[in-house]
Amino acid sequence: MDELLGGHLRALREAAATGRPPGRAELDDCRAAGALAAERGLSVRGLVEAALAGAEAVTPVPFPALRRTVSALMEGYENAQRSALRREEAARREFVDDLLQGRADRLAERAEHFGLRLAETYVVAVARPRVPGVIEGDPGRTGDPTGTTPSGTTTTARATAATTDAGVTEATARRIEEALITRFGSHNVLVAVRDGMLVCVAPGGLTVAIGEFTHHVRQAFAPGWRVGLGRPHRGPGGVVTSYREGAGAIGLGDRLGLRAPVLKAADLLVFPVLLRDRAAIEDLVTTVLSPLLEARGGPGPLLDTLEAVFASQGNQTAAARRLGVSTRAVTYRLERIRRLTGFSPDDSTQRFTLETAVLGARLLDWPAHPPG
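That's the Helix-turn-helix domain-containing protein sequence above. Prediction below.
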């Protein structure tokens, strides 16, 4: 403690003897002592109490000088705390980048520092703010829907992220992470900003943490946000896979015009299967749906009708409400579709073929981008 308070006491004795306030050099010594106290883990209360106790030995106590030296001690202490916090945040950001990209340099050792046990099963939720030009319930129409980046996320998801870089701030991430840590503990959650989106890593068995994360996203983001939820996977590679699944679910939701704000990759597994054989899905869309190009007004209203009927489990009245038209109009359109394509949603086998073709059309952005 003498090492920490020596400059403080010398400044007080000098002030008591000469009547002059502490100069810049003396105050800098006090700031350095405060920073050293923070680095050694001494509490700010303990530091101030020691400084006041030492001042009792100085007669008379120069109170203006005491106020300045104690203020300098606390300033140095607080600056050291802020610097340590910035270093910790930088290390956390670097760790999250390495974790989500699968870079394995001392990953397990660094994960232990942040409370993660990477041998366990983890799930990743990805939250994206509202994107200008992409309205909830409407399909995104950007770029090649089947393209992927080297990191494995779809091009639509990456384009979306680029649009929202200013939408998720470190302050928002910190606020949500602090709320989750308060409830679940620092060893159970990790929240960070990645590619313009908010990422939450949590143990696979702690599903309530993902629900809480979504609750805070709903409060922090404007309407139009989406959360993509990857599947639980084990190990560092599993975290990468779950992250890519969550980001991919958001991209699929935009392209398919899905209305749900929370999308689970487990519920969308059929779409990557379709996209793995692009030639087959292009052939299906062309064979089944190209006759709709002959319809007056184009294929758009008929495709919308099929989507509404499928989303309503075949209930034409509910589909009409979704579309804002009469039930008679829906019935007429379905008959028109049957005559043009030869497929009817009333037949179970044909319904499956039609629904798959319609989903494929959304994935391929047909007919705006016909197979070529």
